[in-house]
Each structure stands twice: as structure tokens, then as C-alpha cells.
């Protein structure tokens, strides 16, 4: 089995941070025999080599592999290290598989660039994909290890066979398009519960309330985060409680600020919302 490191230099480039001639170093590695790196994006990618996502061929325990372990342990490096992959394929064939995944057909926008390799996106995909879609995503990758929002290792595994072409359904695209708002609320949730870790399905839980907030027109960041955190602290349909229903009515019809209206709630009122919402849930 061959081992690889997938690295995205968009926000931070730990691999070349101390390299004075970044492009030269990458080109030399790509042209080596055998090549040591595959630059994703293909011939159509007009970005300079140092700006492109890279698939490095590594050996467990070698200098680059060890360095990547250190990078992934830092907040800045965590989003750059997209994971450690295992596959029977050689570097270039595996790189071409990843290239194909990067171009997807969107139901409304046509061909789009899909950053599936971002650890936050990959983790969310693992929660929303069917087993067949997951197999298509991984394809020849037998093991993909990455670091999640809790700085904990997660692993996706597959038997490594090429399957049908990967594609997302319309509702899954909608879920992916919410990820920026989901990630914003995840950071708020994480700040509230630290140092306790978030649950593994945190992004799905947050998405439930993000969708609800969209329906009520709560688009401002602070309002969105507050609404989601209130939902997470109470019940799935806390919005139906009379106190909350009145707040949301005023937000929707009078343009009132959600934070201003809910800041006046006492602890006993929040406890009432939680308790009575739970009783409604139990009624079915």
C-alpha cells in the first residue's frame, strides 16, 4: 500500500514556508523520477504551482510525514493538512482521481470547482453521503485520515475499488452550500462548550437550526449564531414555543432584532421553553 499527504496551501503553506524558491522546489519535486508531488487542477489550472493543492508521495515515518503530523497539531496548519491517504495506486493515477472529484456538476450552476478535500467539508460529506456515494468519493483510496474540528483524528475507509462516478443530489448541494454558515456556528458552539469536544455529528445538528433560521430570515451573523446556540441548548423545534414564536413573528414582520428580543429572556423563561418544547416533542 502506498502513502500520501494531501496539502492545501490556500490559507497557510507549512511545507514551503521556509523555502525561498517555492516554485523551483515544487517543479523539481514534480519532475523527479519517480515524481514526489502531484499538483491538482490539471493543465487547465492557471494558478502558479505553489498555489495549487498538492498530493505528496510519502513514507510513514519519513521527514515530510513527521512534519505533517506536527502541522496538523496546530490551529493554523490543521486546515492545510487535508489528510493522509493510502492507496494501491501510484501518485499520478491517484492524483487524476482527485482531479476528477474537484470538478462536479451542479444542478443549477453547471460545472463547479468542489473543495471536497477541505477537512470540514470532508467530515460533513461523511455524514450526508450514502454508502454508495462514499465509495465513489473514495474510489481507489483505501484509507483517508484527517483531523476534525476537535483536533481529533477521523478515518474514512474503503476497499479501494473504482466505482461509479461521484455525484451529489440537489439536497446535498444545498447542505454543502450552507457550510460557511454551519462552520461559523460550529465555532460559536465550540467556544461555548470548550474544552469539551463537539459531538461527531455536530455539523448536522447545527445545519438543522441554520435551515430553520433561513426560513425566519435571520441572515445577520450574530443573530444566526445566537439562534443556533439557543436551539442547541433547548429542543429541535423550540421555535414553535409561544415565547419564541412571538419573537420570530416580530423579527419577520417588524424587522426587530432577534438578539435584542431574546436578551430579555430570564433563565426561568429559557427553562420553560426547554421543558415545554420537550413535552411537545414527546406528544409526537
UniProtKB/TrEMBL annotation:
InterPro entries: DUF4123 (IPR025391)
Organism: Halomonas mongoliensis
Domain of life according to the entry: Bacteria
Pfam families on file: DUF4123
Domain DUF4123: 15-135
Protein name: DUF4123 domain-containing protein
